[in-house]
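Reader question, answered in our methods column.
A reader sent in the components of a multi-part assembly and asked whether the whole thing could be modeled at once rather than chain by chain. We filled in our standard form and ran it. Here is what they sent:
COMPLEX SIZE: two components
ENTRIES:
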Amino acid sequence: MTAMPAIPLSVGASRVVRGVRVPHVCGDPALSEDRDHELRARIVTTALNALTTPVSTPTLFEPDQTVLEEVAR
Amino acid sequence: MKLEVGTFPVHDIVFGTQTRWQDGVLSVDKDELLALVMEDPYIAWADIDVTRPGDSVRIVQIRDIVEPKVKVSGPGVTYPGISGRDVTTVGQGRTHRLGGMTLIACSEMPGFNPDGAHWWGTTSVEGRSDITFIDMSGPGAVTPFAHTINLCLQMEPHQESYADDWNRASNAAVLKLNDRLAETTRGFEPHEITTYDLDYRDNALPNIVFVPALASAEYRFGPRTSLGTNVYGIGRLTEPWLLQPTEMIDGAVFGTYMEHFTWPIMETIVPHLCSRHGQEFNFVGCIVVRSNWEAQAEKQLMANRAAQMASALGANGAIVTTNQRGQRFVETVLTVQALERVGVDTVLMTEEEDNENGNAPPLLMSVPEIVSAVSTGTGGVEVTFPRVDRVLGLRQPDPIWYEEKPPIHGRYGVTHLHDFYGFGKQGCMDF
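And here is the structure of the entire assembly that came back:
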């Protein structure tokens, strides 16, 4: 889980979940408490789903989408 | 823009009863200079010393390094926008420089700003050898400043100073001395004049841009901070700046980010490219990319904007540099990628990471668009630094600063050399 997916993808990490920003990867203090909680849950759920998803190439998982984006190395 | 740079060589600096330049000797009235510095109530103590190549001297606690320069004709002042200086566009007319010397400011750095939450980091870790210091002799004398005569301004802030207050005060003090020293050349004919006529273009030659990515301190100290590398006194995270190369020679980019000083960004690639302008290529501009954006989309956007600027300038080639590892390197790599994608042939010039005996990649991040790169080493200085007779930079240096220092192994975050522009004296065999 990272705010900079380009880095792990470039070194060949299998599963990468896009986080928010460098100082707050799994949430956003600019949001209301409810929205922040929803965002955090979405990111963590995406990470858990990623763990159970077979991949063959470095793959980026976007928390704001349910679809997976295949990323070529 | 057309800029003449008049060089007044400095073969020695001596203390005397008046401050003047004559026949390659800079004479300085220490009392006069110290009185200028001590005008500022933030400064509790100051002293001035001179070091020469070959001296058994170690300079520590370095805050910044500049070459004394003054504008003798044309608009503006050198090092514009810093600590309240004029922001008139520079880069035209004539600038006088004192060649072969630098002005080095040394001081402890207060760690915090009034909100208390933001730590600048410290350069006062006693005895650590991998932080920045300059040995003027011995096998570790590998920085360019070991080969220049240096006037060292050593200062101490009042105990209650905050980081930003002190930075403004120490920058102002450095520039007061810069002005006073370089002013000694006014009215004299330079030993040598170099003319950079960037208005002249040869349409048969390729167009080159220089694209330095320079970290901003905004993420830590907020948008109005004076800390870090500034462009005309502004250090905040902005879209890329377009500067004429001669503006950079006049000091439009100034300030220390962690251990990245002013001298390397001003005195390396830019004057070198300027000197070849109109002969091998046209040097059409500098695009300063501010790094330390916190989201990848922001970094991508800045890279895209830099590429658009280069494209609008008609650039055929670009040299891209970085000045800080870690997430700051992402802007750099994305900029290389964006430039290549708009058809600008790009070379990346950077320090490498420690390759951990072949187990780690040399760059934090790599993309297929990096097709040519120049390595400036790993930051390592694999020699023993011998014991020194004198330590400059502190009123009462800890005895540990005089001692022999172990070799510095290049690794992530090593700050001793910080050579991102190829100024070092080491060859590939040293790394």
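What stands out: The longest helix of chain A spans residues 33-51. The longest strand of chain A covers residues 15-17.
Send us your own complexes using the same form.
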